[in-house]
Amino acid sequence: MESTTLSPGDAIEARCTKCRKNVGHVILTLSEEGPLTVQCNSCAREHKYRPPSVAKKPATRRSANPKDAERKEWETLRPSMNSDAARVYSMTDAYKVKALINHPLFGLGLVQRVVGSQKVEVLFEDGKKTMRCK
After folding, report:
1. Which of 134, 80, 130 is nearest to 122 (CA)?
2. What does each of the 134 residues of the chain score in pLDDT, given as a tens digit?
3. Residue 15 Cα distances to 10, 11, 30, 62, 63, angstroms
4. Distance, C-alpha 25 to centroid of its chain
5. Residue 73 in 3-state DSSP?
6. pTM here?
7. Region Disordered: start and end of each range (predicted)?
8. Beta carbons of 130 and 118 less than 8 angstroms apart
9. Whole-angstrom Cα distance, residue 23 to residue 112?
10. CA distance 110 to 100
């Protein structure tokens, strides 16, 4: 593999501080380590050499909608739920994990976890809701 020696006047790709892009530059001064100052071919600005930046990977989505995962979880658990065994929801009652409740607005729900001393997280068909309890 050949090593190329750089000299003033050579073309090099660098990150322009004004254009904020990787563009062609001309080397103005050199040191033993590499280019010191360069001149941008686009805007003609002279600045310290900055190596070209690497393109970032596009962000990947974990899930299109968190409600979709909750809805799938509901669909898998629903056949095992007995609506006759569900207690009518009341803020003054205490609930344990895996307890079935029947809410007048949200319908049948399953207590997923106890959040603090007076709240529970309940999975309903529409998604998870944090409900107040005793």
Report:
1. 130
2. 445 788 889 999 999 988 888 999 999 999 888 899 999 998 999 999 999 888 777 776 665 677 788 888 888 988 888 888 899 999 999 999 999 999 999 999 999 999 988 999 999 988 899 999 88
3. 16, 13, 17, 32, 35
4. 36
5. helix
6. 0.51
7. 49-72
8. no
9. 55
10. 5
